[in-house]
Amino acid sequence: MDLKFRIVTVPRDDAEFERDVSAALRALPEDEIPPAEAVTRLVALLGPRYPRMQVSEQNSLATFSADSVTWYVYREGRVSA
Questions:
Q1: What is the mean pLDDT of each run of 10 residues along the chain (81 residues)?
Q2: Is domain 4-74 in CATH 3.10.20, yes or no?
């Protein structure tokens, strides 16, 4: 099964953070790696610059399709008020 992959960065209006996350994802190996390992590598790449960053996968109950995976990448470890 070919899963579609989507990243949502929080806060949504931080273009620099979104660019950094996208660049870090492109730096991951092109061969398929397990999601948990990809998250670990993503945090390792961006942790020095964003030490409070956290990544969480969307709850399966909130999805519309079993063929897609959404990760939320929080710059400050949570949604800021």
A1: 70 95 86 80 93 84 67 84 51
A2: yes
